[in-house]
Amino acid sequence: MKTGVGFEVTAGDGAARAGRLTTAHGTIPTPAFMPVGTAGTVKAMKSEDVAATGAAVILANTYHLMLRPGAGRVAALGGLHRFMNWDGPILTDSGGYQVLSLTGLRTLHENGVTFRSHIDGTEHDLTPERAIEVQGLLGSDIAMALDECTPYPVERTAARESMELSMRWAARSRARFQPKEGYGLFGIVQGGVFEDLRRESVAALLDIGFDGYAVGGLAVGEGQAEMYRIVEATVNHLPEDRPRYLMGVGKPHDIVGAVSRGIDMFDCVLPTRSGRTGQAFTRRGAVNLRNARHAEDPRPLDESCACLACASYSRAYLHHLFKAKEILGNVLLSAHNLTYYQELMSGLRSAIAGGSLEGFIAAFREEQAAGDIPVV
Amino acid sequence: MKTGVGFEVTAGDGAARAGRLTTAHGTIPTPAFMPVGTAGTVKAMKSEDVAATGAAVILANTYHLMLRPGAGRVAALGGLHRFMNWDGPILTDSGGYQVLSLTGLRTLHENGVTFRSHIDGTEHDLTPERAIEVQGLLGSDIAMALDECTPYPVERTAARESMELSMRWAARSRARFQPKEGYGLFGIVQGGVFEDLRRESVAALLDIGFDGYAVGGLAVGEGQAEMYRIVEATVNHLPEDRPRYLMGVGKPHDIVGAVSRGIDMFDCVLPTRSGRTGQAFTRRGAVNLRNARHAEDPRPLDESCACLACASYSRAYLHHLFKAKEILGNVLLSAHNLTYYQELMSGLRSAIAGGSLEGFIAAFREEQAAGDIPVV
User: Fold this and answer.
1) Does B47 touch chain A (CB under 8 A)?
2) Distance between CA atoms of residues B244 and B231, nearest Å
3) Cβ-based neighbour number of residue A53 at 10 Å
4) If pLDDT is split at 50, 70 and 90, which confidence band does B376 have?
5) Spatial distance between the Cα atoms of B250 and B54, rounded to a whole number of angstroms
6) What ipTM, to 2 d.p.?
7) By the 8 A CB rule, do B260 and B229 touch?
């Protein structure tokens, strides 16, 4: 039996690739953006509405789900897919990033992380083995190895120690993961902003062998230029035939730049989190719907957008919903922003397949720079 | 040209009636329950989802909309139907109830009410004429005359004075209302818990002549028995051929009892407000989804319910959403509760048409009293 997830590169354009990632719950066209469903729900959206945005895969957070409702409970209820009514692929993070963010509530040691729940203060251990077990109980199609996200900025020595710890955890994660057809485990490259450490990390992960490789520890304050430098230095050493996932990225510009450098997968809370504050992403840049200039505007946010907000509601109405703090504003703008992100990914895939990525990116930048459609 | 809204009683069973109320934006089968869309949105629900619950008409609040986004603005944007993407009939209240609830911020006088906005403290006047103008700007299918909701408890003399003021305002409301085909104006019966005052109020309204008659000033603390007594005493004097609307009612039991006494229309925030706190209405009574007994229950809230929550999500998932304070909990439970209310109304209409209302009510009471489906 063939185990793991399948991946096929179907087209290339410069360093960029388009492909197909096949999991137990379906095939994901890449480059792909994964909406974040932190606590078993992409915030403010029904699963049907998430699917309607064009999303083929979502991300769920192991940390949140292991604490509430608990991984064992999710398993007893038939797994995360059934629990949240999402039939497509699910990628789960390892929980490491969020546990390590619990400053003052956690202790890092060789075996893993001991932490206190932000919900009820109870003490828990997250080890590489436990992270894999929990993700197995959730039933995710793609699990992530436990790692330490190297802080930024950090000295070289500390970055090396952190990376080496992550590599030892990666080996332990792999050892505990039970291979099954359609289910995969990704390793995470660390090493901060040091290219040689990134190379060492890649070599260590390739020695262990994973279904895909994530670039971790970026988008933590290093800036876009540094991020791209490290992405390039990392991607150059990753195998062509395995998917590459840039974790926690990002803004539309960041994604476009990373795709052109050979990244296949992304996740970010930005479209949904921004959507809940009235910030829209559009072809012509970010638009703040709380701004008074929208108050009497009968036009949709973007006439060319097929999302449910743009199909049926005016900017004036969206503005009103945010001024009145109505839940429907969160619902509609989350749907719009995710639709925009998926449209962008679809455009990138088509451009790569057609060998026209350079032109696509030039047009993308020009349109973004032009700013919001003026009031007529 | 025939002006006003049409109404036809199609079946009767005891004092109860089934009928059809025809407006510019469609026909409403009665008895009907109107979900409340306070600020131009039925809270947490897209208009499409409201329609999917079976609702044929919604209520919107004049007070909220006149302050934000403003009635003139809604009119400039094509009216409330287009603004909130609801193609069906809309009934608007007069704003009086909410303005008069602004204790300390309002002054009642013969001409109307002077009040300060709860949003920005600006001073406004709501007169019978202005209430009608605002409702015209919103474009509602059914407007309500401005009235004072007589407080409870209240002395007889004060109740008379209040009712008589409302009757003078009713005449002024009617005088300002511009008759048009498909658009109607309802008068509101007041008089507190005093049957003779209610009779006098009905006589005054019939003298003026309205498209329909509302029973106001109830469900304000008088209790169900008192409410039914006044409903009976009022309905007995209302014309058979005009719709009757019991304002702000209520719980499923209240609605069933009022339908059996000849009421045709209802509105209440209860299904949506309760839905946002985790309280579900079901055939078997109220169910609090925050209760720990639901935490591991894989069954839907109600297997026989066709709502989107019951179709795809477990009690355990709904419980989780409310514990985690996720917006999707509000979305799903609002949809469920409105679906339950609409199912109840549909059942009442069928029972009246079939002459089986007594049996329907007996079965309703028995099922409600049985309590929630036990865990197996």
Assistant:
1) yes
2) 10
3) 24
4) low
5) 18
6) 0.97
7) no
Measured between CB atoms, does A67 come within 8 Å of chain B?
Answer: no
Do A151 and A103 touch, CB atoms closer than 8 A?
no
Q: What confidence tier does B373 reach under pLDDT thresholds 50, 70, 90?
A: confident
Going by C-beta distance under 8 Å and a sequence separation of 6 or more, which residues neighbour residue A314? A297, A298, A299, A300, B77, B83
Would an 8 Å CB–CB cutoff place B156 in contact with chain A? no
The Cα–Cα gap between B151 and B192 comes to 8
* pLDDT one-digit tens code per residue, A241-254: 999 999 999 999 99
Q: Name residues whose C-beta falls within 8 Å of residue B376's C-beta, 6 or more positions apart in sequence.
A: none
CA distance B53 to A279: 30
Q: How far apart are CA B85 and CA B62, in angstroms?
A: 17
| Residue numbers in B near A332 (CB within 8 A) | 46
One-letter amino acid of B311: A
Q: At what angle do helices B195-208 and B156-176 cross, to 10 degrees?
A: 10
Quick: pLDDT tens for A1-38: 589 999 999 999 999 999 999 999 999 999 999 999 99
Q: Give B6-64 pLDDT, tens digit per residue.
A: 999 999 999 999 999 999 999 999 999 999 999 999 999 999 999 999 999 999 999 99
**Residue B319 carries which side chain, given as an amino acid letter?**
H
Cis peptide before B69 (omega within 30 of 0): yes
Separation between Cα atoms, residue B82 and residue A307, nearest integer Å:
17
A317/B contact by beta carbon, under 8 A: yes
SS3 string, B66-82, reads HHCCCHHHHHHCCCHHH
How far apart, in whole angstroms, are the C-alpha atoms of residue B349 and residue A341? 46
> Please, what are the domains in chain A?
6-268 (3.20.20.105), 277-370 (no CATH)
Tokens of A263: 């990244």
Main-chain dihedrals φ then ψ at residue B194, nearest 5 degrees: -100, 115
- Cα–Cα separations (whole angstroms), residue B143 to A100, A294, B24, B59: 58, 29, 13, 10
Instruction: Say yes or no for a CB contact (<8 Å) between B77 and A47.
Output: no
Identity of the residue in B43, B68, B320 whose CB atom sits nearest the CB atom of A40? B320
Tokens standing for residue B324: 């985690």
Q: Is the pTM of this model over 0.90?
A: yes
Q: Is A207 a catalytic residue?
A: no
Residues in a beta bridge with A115: A106, A124
- How would you write chain B as a 3-class SS string? CCCECEEEEEEEECCEEEEEEEECCEEEEECEEECEECCCCCCCCCHHHHHHCCCCCEEECHHHHHHCCCHHHHHHCCCHHHHHCCCCCEEECCCHHHHHCCCCCEEEECCEEEEECCCCCCEEEECHHHHHHHHHHHCCCEEECCCCCCCCCCCHHHHHHHHHHHHHHHHHHHHHCCCEECEEEEEEECCCCCHHHHHHHHHHHHHHCCCEEEECCCCCCCCHHHHHHHHHHHHCCCCCCCCEEECCCCCHHHHHHHHCCCCCEEECCHHHHHHCCCEEEECCEEEECCCHHHCCCCCCCCCCCCCHHHHHCCHHHHHHHHHCCCHHHHHHHHHHHHHHHHHHHHHHHHHHHCCCHHHHHHHHHHHHHHCCCCCC
Q: For strand A36-37 and strand A58-60, is the pairing parallel, antiparallel, or unpaired?
A: parallel
| A331 lies within 8 A of chain B by CB | yes
DSSP A30: E
DSSP state of A40: S
Residue from the list A47, A83, A328 with its beta carbon closest to the beta carbon of B44 = A328
- Chain A closest-CA separation from residue B105 CA (Å): 20
Q: Which of B47, B76, B320 sits opposite A68 (nearest CB)?
A: B320
Interchain proximity A45–B328, CB inside 8 Å: yes
In which element (H, E) is residue A159 found?
Answer: helix A156-176
